[in-house]
Amino acid sequence: MRPVILAYSFTGNNRLLAETLASKLGCPLVDVVPRAKRWPISIAIDLMLRRFPRIRPVDLPGHDHLLVIAPLWNRWIAHPMRAALRALGAEIGPYSFISLSGGVRPGQIEFVDEQLEQLTGQPPRNHWALYVEKLVPEDIRGTPKVSAYKVSPHELERYPEIGEIVGWAQAQP
Ligand SMILES: Cc1cc2nc3c(=O)[nH]c(=O)nc-3n(C[C@H](O)[C@H](O)[C@H](O)COP(=O)(O)O)c2cc1C
C-alpha cells in the first residue's frame, strides 16, 4: 500500500497525529492550508454559515489510499478539511478518516460518516475516532478544558488506535 496523509489542524493535536502516523508509515503528509489566517472566531463563523473556507490547491503525490485527518467542531469535520474534500470529490479514491477530537457526542460518528459520503460520494474504508477525553483527568472530562487540551507526543502513544492504523495500513498489499 502507498498511503498519503491529508491533514488539517487548528491547535496542533491532529497535526501531531498526522506527523506521528506519517513517520511510522514512512509516507508523505500533505497539509490543508487555508488562504486566510484563521482565528478562533473563524471556527464560529464557519459553523454559523456552514462555510467552505478558501484553501490553497491540494496537490497529492501518487498513492493508493488517502488517510484524512482533521478535528471535529460541533460534530462537523473542520471546515477547511470539508473544503478540501469537496474539491477532491469523487477523485479522492479509497480513503479512511481519522480524527483526534474532544469526546464523542450523540450521533457524532454517523454524522461524520454522512458528511464524508456527501462530500466525496463514497464512504470511508475505515473511521478511527480518538478522543482527548480518554487522556485527561476525570475532573476535566466534559468541561471546555477538553477542547483546549494539547496532546503531547508521549500521550499520543497511549492510543491503541495508532498501532491499529499502522498495522492495518502495513497489512494491505
Ligand atoms: C468550537 C469547538 C467545537 C468542538 N466540537 C467538538 C465536537 O463536536 N466533538 C468532538 O469530539 N470534539 C469537539 N471539539 C474538540 C476538538 O475537536 C479537539 O480539541 C481537537 O483535538 C482539536 O484539534 P486540533 O488541535 O488539531 O485543531 C471542539 C472544539 C472546538 C474549539
Tell me what the structure shows.
With 173 residues, the protein is α/β, with parallel strands linked by helices. It has a single domain (3-163), classed as Rossmann fold (3-Layer(aba) Sandwich), CATH 3.40.50.360. Helix content is 36%, strand content 17%. It has helices spanning 13-25, 40-49, 79-88, 108-120, 153-156, 160-171; strands spanning 3-7, 29-31, 65-69, 72-73, 76-77, 95-101, 127-131. The strands form 2 sheets. Strands 2-1-3-6-7 form a 5-stranded parallel β-sheet, with helices on both faces. A two-stranded antiparallel sheet has the order 4-5. Helix 1 (13-25) links the parallel strand 1 and strand 2 (29-31). The radius of gyration is 15 Å and the shape is globular. The termini are close together. The structure holds flavin mononucleotide.
- The count of DSSP E runs of length 2 or more, i.e. the number of strands, is 7
- How much of the polypeptide forms β-strand, as a percent range? 15-25%
Helix and strand run: EHEHEEEHEHEHH
Distance between the termini: 5 Å
Features:
about 170 residues, binds flavin mononucleotide, two-stranded antiparallel ribbon, five-stranded parallel β-sheet, Rossmann fold, alpha/beta
